[in-house]
Design the sequence.
């Protein structure tokens, strides 16, 4: 009995997870985009939400990290003379909504946890970045929505790789690239 309890405890301690980027591939466009005119000031308003198995929920602390990656993309674009968050006057405003939908197969999750992660479980996170650009007076200039996806695998044998592929390290990179794609798309349309 003690051996069985020890084996179960060891298996639970050695279980690991690995998150991998599924979509989109790494952003490959020119970065920063070529400047084509005056650089306006921009104010970012970043909001977010999530759906877990179809039920709405809060994104939690990852929203702050995703917001930092969003701001970094706008600053590094070199298209704006100043980037601010939710404050001050600016020439244009960007309303950015970050949404995540987490899904998993219930039967696979059941068998995975029943076998203490010997059978792997996978969670899919669909990430959507919806960007709406408006003037200081509120007139719409452009809207774009881009999608990304990550998969997180939970399995006993993934323990050695877990520190290198944590979801909190993979998803911010996806959000950063999705924002770069949105900025490039809006720049190509002549919004800024």
Sequence:
């Amino acid at each position: 009995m003690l051996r069985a309890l020890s084996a179960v405890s060891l298996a639970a301690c050695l279980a690991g997870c690995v998150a991998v980027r599924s979509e989109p591939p790494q952003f490959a466009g020119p970065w920063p985009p070529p400047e084509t005119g005056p650089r306006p000031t921009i104010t970012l308003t970043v909001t977010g939400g999530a759906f877990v198995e179809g039920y709405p929920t809060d994104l939690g602390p990852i929203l702050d990290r995703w917001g930092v990656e969003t701001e970094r993309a706008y600053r590094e674009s070199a298209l704006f003379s100043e980037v601010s968050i939710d404050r001050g006057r600016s020439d244009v405003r960007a309303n950015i909504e970050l949404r995540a939908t987490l899904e998993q197969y219930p039967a696979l999750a059941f068998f995975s946890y029943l076998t203490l992660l010997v059978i792997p479980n996978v969670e899919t996170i669909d990430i959507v970045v919806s960007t709406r650009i408006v003037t200081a007076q509120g007139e719409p200039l452009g809207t774009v929505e881009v999608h990304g996806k990550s998969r997180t695998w939970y399995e006993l044998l993934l323990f050695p790789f877990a520190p290198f592929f944590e979801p909190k390290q993979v998803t911010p990179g996806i959000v950063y690239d999705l924002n770069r794609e949105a900025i490039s798309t809006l720049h190509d349309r002549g919004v800024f």
In short: The two ends are 68 Å apart (CA to CA). The longest helix spans residues 167-188. Residues 120 and 155 are 5 Å apart (CA to CA). The mean pLDDT is 87.
